[in-house]
């Protein structure tokens, strides 16, 4: 893996008692892909992001996904209780949870469409629109805000050439604001896909963007 472009040890970086590299600490091996048959036999992915090139017209819960969907149902006393992992699986397949996906999940779980839409729109981990390969979530809550999060957010928007929530033309980036990411001791905290970047300053943003672009082009992320 490549070296980090800046010093950002985080909560358990190699300045702590563990002899780990930053990449090992942040664990990015699985980012961006998951076999259709899943990993653990009975769970659904819970990734808060998906790739821009996912096909939103892919049939839901067919083939290997049908098997995973059925396994998910076995873990709950009623099929209605499987709503959250079913939505997560729909997002994994199609890249986001469209109104059509919500309706299909509602039909399969024998819930009303309104109920499913209420749940889906409550949770920010379900994307209601396609997002870029790198979903950049900048915490602008109180600790981060006091330490300059607004400037970090502005820098991400400037260097990705996007508006808030918009996908960049190359499909690489979507930048959004996040509420507290529970890393308040390391402001500004930015979550990019599953990885946390801590103590981020505006000056580091171009380097982070370049690193992510290199990853999208086939290099290490
Ligand atoms: S306020 Fe930013 S991580 Fe908590």
- The residue-averaged pLDDT reads 80
> Ligands bound here?
FE2/S2 (inorganic) cluster
At the first level of CATH, the class of the largest domain is: Alpha Beta
The CATH superfamily label of the largest domain reads Glutaredoxin
Runs in which pLDDT lies below 50 for 5 or more consecutive residues are 1-16, 27-32, 40-46
According to DSSP, the number of beta strands is 4
What is the level-2 CATH architecture name of the largest domain? 3-Layer(aba) Sandwich
SSE series: HHHHHEHHEEEH
Helix content: 25-40%
Name the beta content range.
5-15%
Which class do the helix and strand fractions yield? alpha+beta
The CATH topology label of the largest domain is: Glutaredoxin
Number of helices: 8
Structural shape: elongated
Largest β-sheet summary = 4 strands, mixed
The total number of structural domains is 2
């Amino acid at each position: 893996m490549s070296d980090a472009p800046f010093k950002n040890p985080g909560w358990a970086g190699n300045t702590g008692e563990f002899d780990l590299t930053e990449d090992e600490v942040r664990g990015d091996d699985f980012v961006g892909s998951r076999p259709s048959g899943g990993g653990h036999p009975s769970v659904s992915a819970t990734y808060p992001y998906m790739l821009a090139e996912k096909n939103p017209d892919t049939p839901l819960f067919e083939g290997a996904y049908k098997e995973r969907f059925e396994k998910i149902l076995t873990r709950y006393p009623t099929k209605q209780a499987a709503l959250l992992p079913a939505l997560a699986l729909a997002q994994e397949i199609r890249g986001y949870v469209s109104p059509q996906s919500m309706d299909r999940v509602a039909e399969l779980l024998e819930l009303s469409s309104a109920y499913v839409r209420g749940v889906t729109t409550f949770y920010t981990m379900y994307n209601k629109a396609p997002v870029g390969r790198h979903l950049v979530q900048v915490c602008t809550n109180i600790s981060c805000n006091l330490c300059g999060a607004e400037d970090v957010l502005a820098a991400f928007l400037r260097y990705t050439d996007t508006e808030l929530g918009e996908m960049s033309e190359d499909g690489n980036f979507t930048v959004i604001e996040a509420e507290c990411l529970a890393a308040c001791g390391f402001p500004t905290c930015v979550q990019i896909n599953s990885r946390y970047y801590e103590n981020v300053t505006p000056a580091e943003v171009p380097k982070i963007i370049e690193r992510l672009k290199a990853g999208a082009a086939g290099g290490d992320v």
